[in-house]
């Protein structure tokens, strides 16, 4: 006997692929979760690709602050993600898209196409907003299109002890509110660093005691 419902003509065996967006400030464990998710799906025999853009390592890798790392495909602005997946010999069950906030809006549309037209699960990870607390265009599109959006809050705290929500850009010890949306920081070569603040202190521009010292 086949299951049926008066409310739905959709076969119960149908399972749509999903587009999920996990967002949070720096250091909240996004890349760690991305790598964990890839590991879990791989163990179930599913085949996936791991993509990233502007990873902290500076290379085509997903690395997490706690020291995990994995080779990944670097997404540049001209990469067509549908072509990337459909051009492969092997079936692709899922994509892990780290730093998805830095993708183009068109690439987010391509991710939705992969979900709807090709049955690929897409797990996207990234920041929601930039150093001004303004949403990244790609993150905004993910909020609009995703089946599920999850805020990650892995004990990243503002200096005051409140949950860290927003990234401040710090140049020469001061918080700045103007400039390019994407500037790579927190590297030896960069004068820019980022600091996670609560909303209150992001809006007030207060970096807290001792923040004029550079981290060792
Ligand atoms: Zn605070």
Automatic annotation (TrEMBL):
One of its GO terms (molecular function) is ATP binding. It catalyses: thymidine + ATP = dTMP + ADP + H(+). Substrate binds at residues 182-185, 194. Pfam families: TK. Keywords: ATP-binding, DNA synthesis, Kinase, Nucleotide-binding, Transferase. The keyword Methyltransferase does not apply. GO terms for cellular component: cytosol. One of its GO terms (biological process) is DNA biosynthetic process. SUPFAM superfamilies: Glucocorticoid receptor-like (DNA-binding domain), P-loop containing nucleoside triphosphate hydrolases. Its EC number is 2.7.1.21. The active site is at 99 (proton acceptor). The keyword Kinase applies. InterPro entries: P-loop_NTPase (IPR027417), Thymidine_kinase (IPR001267). Belongs to the thymidine kinase family. This is Thymidine kinase. It comes from Nonomuraea turkmeniaca. The lineage of its organism: Bacteria, Bacillati, Actinomycetota, Actinomycetes, Streptosporangiales.
């Amino acid at each position: 006997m086949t299951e049926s419902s008066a409310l739905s003509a959709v076969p119960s065996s149908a399972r749509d692929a999903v587009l999920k967006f996990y967002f949070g400030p720096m250091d909240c464990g996004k890349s760690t979760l991305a790598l964990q998710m890839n590991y879990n799906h791989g163990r179930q025999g599913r085949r996936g690709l791991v993509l990233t853009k502007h990873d902290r390592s500076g290379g085509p890798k997903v690395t997490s602050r706690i020291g995990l790392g994995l080779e990944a495909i670097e997404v540049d602005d001209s990469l067509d993600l549908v072509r990337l997946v459909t051009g492969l010999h092997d079936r692709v069950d899922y994509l892990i898209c780290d730093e998805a906030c830095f993708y183009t809006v068109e690439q987010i549309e391509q991710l939705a196409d992969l979900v709807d037209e090709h049955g690929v699960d897409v797990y996207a990870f990234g920041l929601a907003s930039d150093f001004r607390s303004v949403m990244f265009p790609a993150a905004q599109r993910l909020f609009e299109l995703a089946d599920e959006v999850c805020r990650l809050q892995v004990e990243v705290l503002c200096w005051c002890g409140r949950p860290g929500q927003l990234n401040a850009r710090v140049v020469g010890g001061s918080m700045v509110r103007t400039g390019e949306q994407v500037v790579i920081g927190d590297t030896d070569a960069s004068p820019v660093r980022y600091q996670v603040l609560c909303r209150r202190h992001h809006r007030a521009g207060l970096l807290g005691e001792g923040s004029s010292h550079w981290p060792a």
